[in-house]
Description:
Number of domains of chain A: 2
Oligomer: homodimer
CATH architecture of the largest domain in chain A: Alpha-Beta Complex
Low-confidence stretches of chain A: none
Number of helices of chain A: 4
Number of strands of chain A: 11
Strand order of the largest sheet of chain A: 1-2-3-4
Amino acid sequence: MTETPARRGPWIVNATRRVYDNPWIGISEHDVTDPGGNPGLYGVCEVKSVAVGIVPVDAQGHVWLVGQHRFPRDYYSWELPEGGGRLDVPPIDSARRELKEETGLTAGNWLEILHTDFSNAISDEIGVGFLAWDLTVGDADPDPDEKIDIRRLPFAAALEMALAGEIRDAFSQNMLMKVEILGRRGSLPGPVADALGYPA
Amino acid sequence: MTETPARRGPWIVNATRRVYDNPWIGISEHDVTDPGGNPGLYGVCEVKSVAVGIVPVDAQGHVWLVGQHRFPRDYYSWELPEGGGRLDVPPIDSARRELKEETGLTAGNWLEILHTDFSNAISDEIGVGFLAWDLTVGDADPDPDEKIDIRRLPFAAALEMALAGEIRDAFSQNMLMKVEILGRRGSLPGPVADALGYPA
């Protein structure tokens, strides 16, 4: 328990306790004075990694999806390659590692396409999304606790899965829609626009 | 502590403990056997509400954003109207309530435009997004612990904020991009397409 009257914008933090920790997440519970001036409690889920996600586009306009059973909601989920990077490692380096581990792909070119905060009333988790192209296929090396499937399909088909709700993961939906919008605006890198059939 | 050997897809749950609770979130910690067959721990952040979000479009093609200081990452955030609905209440009813509370708006027409899972490796939180139109302006009635600002602006300007990262909230980014994509495809309801200048 620390007694640290401090401000976060209109919030006053009167005390903070660490009430839960595991290797991946923790909960800090704060006694606060809320913006309305009333005493309250705020428990923040602190995530010990930065989420990185990748849209890997090959010369035929295909992308890769990763399928796995997601434990928290108990369902099988197709997603873009994603993972957690160390907070002290540049997200691009974590993205390179995750792409290689999950799909075996290495990419000659990378472009950061979005930053996003997943649930900013509850957690401090952030995500950084990348476009990757000029791909070379190699051997995957998934984490031993992961059991994943890999699927290569046209970008347009992956986008339709996101729009139809067959891809339920917010990060994947977000990245796929952003590529579509940038593509229609002529704002994608030339080789990616060519591969995906968007105007240059 | 409950001893409940049970399956979640390729995961085996050997025991579950409730290790944290506040009125809004809790943590269930599970002793698992992971898909690779190894013993492990999985702490799930369980969210006691369903996130609802609204894109409220008026006849002039404007939308409303809500600004507030988000405590977990300590920054001021412009977002679409959003809130948490009770798990036992239909999301559309929670969306009507949140829209009215935060902006004073009531809408004659509603369309569900997306389902999303915000952070499906860590939490069980889900979001349901709606398009709302045929708007009537009334008095807002924000929660006493909220201190929010309201801004009405053209939809196109809000979309640009999302694409540029000035809107950092994943749910808002997701809803704004989905409306843009549906709009360009001619898949929005006629009055909304007309107001936003998309093909009918």
